[in-house]
Amino acid sequence: MAETEPAAGGEGDERLRAEIAAKLKGGLETEAWPRAGSSEMVNEIVGRLRSEAQDDLVAKLVVAGVTDHPIEADDLDQPCETCMYYLVHRRFCELPELMIPVEPTWSCRLWRI
Asked: How many domains is the chain partitioned into structurally?
């Protein structure tokens, strides 16, 4: 199992980002749908992340619906780079239940403006 909260930036993020990319490219099926369009759905997904996926990288990716490409929902592209949880200079998702390095063009179902 990979370390899911590496030290801020640097080599640890790069290694974990590459590991995540390989899993996604390798066919890992994640729960990209339905998108978390309501507070209830957000709470449900966050609750699952807390209970089912705390220290399990693959479970986090699956439950959060992480994809290696942007998703369009409600006529709106939803790439990580436009999400409120995305740290641009670090290429990192700071949603407390995820805390993973990501690529700008990836997406997850917890995307928020």
From this structure: 1
